[in-house]
Amino acid sequence: MSRKYQGLIVLNTKSLDGTVDELVASVGKEIEAEGAKLEKVAQLGRRQFAYNARHLESGHYVNYTFQGAPDVITKIQSRLHLNGHVHLQHFVRVA
Predict the structure, then answer these.
(1) Which residue from 10, 36, 83, 86 could staple onto 66, CB 3.0 to 4.6 Å apart?
(2) What span, in angstroms and rounded, lies between the C-alpha atoms of 27 and 83?
């Protein structure tokens, strides 16, 4: 059974080697590697934080829309937790 989800991911681009587009694509590939099917990737741009979080003043916001099994969220969260460029991640189920 496949469900539709949205994931808001804040990326830390402070010590980035390549471009932001390459980082967004690599995070999308990590999501797909856990069995999800990406439908849409929307880059929302760089935004300032209300306060400095872990020595960061801002982050690059990306909204991923994808479909997957109900257990795919926990797999994606644990995989992205290991990625040093992912500052924050939040997932919701879309009706």
Answers:
(1) 36
(2) 9
